[in-house]
Amino acid sequence: MSPTTAGVVGMAALLVLLFLRMPIGIAMALVGAIGIAFLNSPDAALHILGSYPYSHGAVQALSVIPLFVLMGNFAVVSGMSGDLFAAAYAWMGHRRGGLASATVLACAGFAALSGSSVASAITMGRVTLPEMRKYSYDPRLATGVVAAGGSLGILIPPSTALVIYGILTEQSIGKLFLAGFLPGLLLTALFMITVVIVCAVRPDFGPPGPRAAVRERWAALRRAGAFFLVLVATIGGMYAGVFTVTEASGVGAGLTLAHAILRRKLTWAGLSDALLQTVRTTAMVFLILIGAHIFSPFLAMSRIPVDLANALTAMALPGLAVLAILLVAYIILGMFLEGFAILVLTVPIVLPIMLAMNFDPIWFGIFMVIVLEMGLISPPVGINVFVVKGIAEDVPMYQIFAGILPFWVAMIVCVALLIAFPQIALILPNTMIR
Amino acid sequence: MFERALRLLALGGGAVLLGLLGLVIFDVVMRYLLRLPFLGAYEMTELAMVLIVFLALPYCAATGGHVAVDALSPILDRPGLRWLNAIIHAAGAVLMAVIAWQATLYAIVSGQRGEATNMLKIPKQPFELVTAVCALLFAVVLLVQAWKALRPSQAPETRR
Amino acid sequence: QAQVELRLSTFVPPVHVIYREILVPWAADVEKATKGEVKVTLYPSMQLGGKPPELFRQVVDGVVDLTFTLPGYTSPAFPRVGIIELPGLKRDGFAATDMMWDLLDPYLLPEFQGTKVIALWGAEDAGLMTRTDKAYRSMDDLKGLRIRAPSAAQAKQIQFMGAVPIAAPITEVYPGLERGTMDGAMVPFTTILDFRLGEVAKGYTISGPIFGRSVFLVAMNQKKYDSLSPAARAAIDKLSGRALSRKATGVYIKRAEEAVKSVRGKADVVELSKAEQDRIGKTLRPIIDEWIKESESKGIPARDMLKRAGFAL
Ligand code: NA
Ligand code: NA
């Protein structure tokens, strides 16, 4: 069996195991290890099983995941998130789907302080899902909007994905961050339009509430002041250069904890519950990450990514056709792989092809990130979906995917706009002098 | 009893997380107020992450927290397919047991080679052993679930 | 002869200068010299998984056959190799590389047990960069500033100069300087291009050979090497060693010159005066004595090593 065949068989086996309800992380680790045993050696596979769980758990940069989750959980304990959504509801709730639109906005705001999609989806999910459920939103819309909105975390700067892309391709990280800004706003707007369309077609998905009086609206906004204070302290601290992302996540969690204590909302039971919830969610995310990191070396050794790139070059197609093929290929890869793995595996191979066809590498970085976002929410392996599933445990996975579909279409529209008008990504980095 | 123990273990991970929170804030405060950075903060965060992730892993499994694709649940929950569910759990248990075994071997060699963090020279071996023990507990949880999947008296398990 | 595939795993991306100018040509040379018997496949950017600090152990344990890595990632496992991180030992990267090869047998080899050393070389001189428009002109400019240190040994050198070291991997220097969580950084200047630091640093101090150096390693699993045919081993031997290491040093030095050229005129680029270099050298001197004491307590013949390195105690 050739490495390529082995890779294809491995991907098929992964699909079968996933549909048999094997936990995703375990399935990826199992298929990855067997594949490595086959393509490299059984000893190598055993060694990897013994060492990668530790190495991909002991990651300083990923400490933002438990810390931001903890911040979200403390915000729930202190009632801060409830206040925020009471305010959002007062201002937007009388519209159909208003709370879902507010969630999109909140996700975009949160994306400005989180570099990770997973952290965004978890935090905003913890805050917004119970509220949308409380106001009788359809679980499909509620979970879909959080999974999609969370993915803004890697498009709106700061973005870990863009940092990795910049280092892989020797492109300016500052320019990449600037380039991500307008497409991030565009996608936010498209998501809000999607909410409006979904609620126009299915009015029962986001029922309108009573209209709040003007005075009530301002009072609700004042009550949500603490949340904005935390947001300003953490975002402001990050942009002013006082904190790194990790530190911002720590300070944010510390501030929400302090708020809960000051409001006398924190009991021992509440604290241990928030901690248990946080570490449980963290363990869930990391099992998947660890599985992905055992699976992706197998895919690398199968040489499938390299073969794909070579085949593409050999065809000598026009630029748009290549983009279309890449889009489809990435959507398929995105079904199986975690975003970081896709970047590392494919960018070094694909970028030279893009450069040869005169595509702007900064523009392509933004294109990649949006496509990665699509992968994050597409079945069967969509990390953001799993994260949301971890929070909304009673909603079946297929319902979440159904709820995501309209937002996934919105992303396609965003990609199409980006192809038609590359300036959306390029105008800021090309005009702002650094 | 077993599940209570796993919960305590996960709470231990939660305590480490609180400690990490304290460490991050302490590091920021020290650096800005006293200009005294804590050189070990980076690697202590790495080690804390190991504890946070792995101490909670078996508890997450025992409470059904690990994510699976449930698209075919209506078919798979039929009594005739109990054996298949048991096999899937058991296969996971085998994988986790292998991870535990190999992580132990890795940790032993790690100790012999004197592997430690760069700044504070904290030995990595104990933390690698934590991953091994927790993977083993994870395997036990999966075995229990495989056994439960076979028992006809049980209502079809709700999996996530 | 059956074809043997050797997998090389490394943390650098394929655009990295060592990847392009050393690893890719070396892989091609090996294939040619062994008449196709040995084929080297390169896996950049940690595509084969794990974290950079584990690369050396992966080669020792045979998970991969070859690696390009930094022993400094796991400095506690390389106390002897750490000699190159001492301040001001050698006048330039070539001399430092020669020193490592002079020391290899018998002093350094025990730390590379289980592997065959293909290349081992010292980096170009480390320099200082700052996010402010004014480069550091003397040690006094550093007082109380937060300076990123590449390793534990260099953290100590930063401390001795009165600054506050921050331990962070190279990938965090860009956001650190951009946002100001770091005031400056001690780095080899190839990072101006290789990690885009030229975008965020506005002042550069060419410091001369007064600081410690990073050391780079290309190593091969010993058993894998032994399993090759005598002809293949001879071919690999011929393509490895001091000459390849010197070539790699040259690539770095040339890259560093290009890097400095790329920021000249756009940023404040200064060179430390000889007098200031001597002053810093004197300030850092006690670090060498500390290293001797610490090493000897571990049974490492530190004095013999320094003598062999041509350092006057
Ligand atoms: Na972001
Ligand atoms: Na996906």
Give the biggest beta sheet of chain C. 6 strands, mixed
User: Would you report the number of β strands of chain C?
Assistant: 11
Helix content range of the residues of chain C, please? 40-55%
Average residue pLDDT of chain B? 89
Q: How far apart lie the N and C ends of chain B?
A: 23 Å
Cα-atom Rg of chain C, whole angstroms? 20 Å
Biggest protein-protein interface? A-B, 61 and 65 residues
For the largest sheet of chain C, list the strands in their spatial order.
7-6-8-5-9-11
Give the structural class of chain B: mainly alpha
Q: Low-confidence segments of chain C, ≥5 residues, pLDDT <50?
A: none
Low-confidence stretches of chain B: 156-160
Which percent band covers the strand fraction of chain B?
under 5%
What small molecules does the structure contain?
Answer: sodium ion
Task: Choose one word for the global shape of chain B.
Answer: elongated
Number of DSSP helical runs of chain C:
11
Would you kindly provide a written description of the structure presented here, covering whatever features stand out?
The complex is a heterotrimer of chains A (434), B (160) and C (313). Chain A has 434 residues and is mostly helical. Chain A is 79% helix and 0% strand. Chain A is built from 21 helices and no strands. Chain A is globular. The mean pLDDT of chain A is 85. The longest helix of chain B is centred in the first third of the chain and has 33 residues, at 2-34. Chain B has one domain (2-154). Chain B starts with a helix and ends in a 10-residue tail after the last helix. Chain C is built from eleven helices and eleven strands. Chain C has a six-stranded mixed beta sheet, with helices on both faces. The radius of gyration of chain C is 20 Å and the shape is globular. The interface between A and B is large, with 61 and 65 residues.
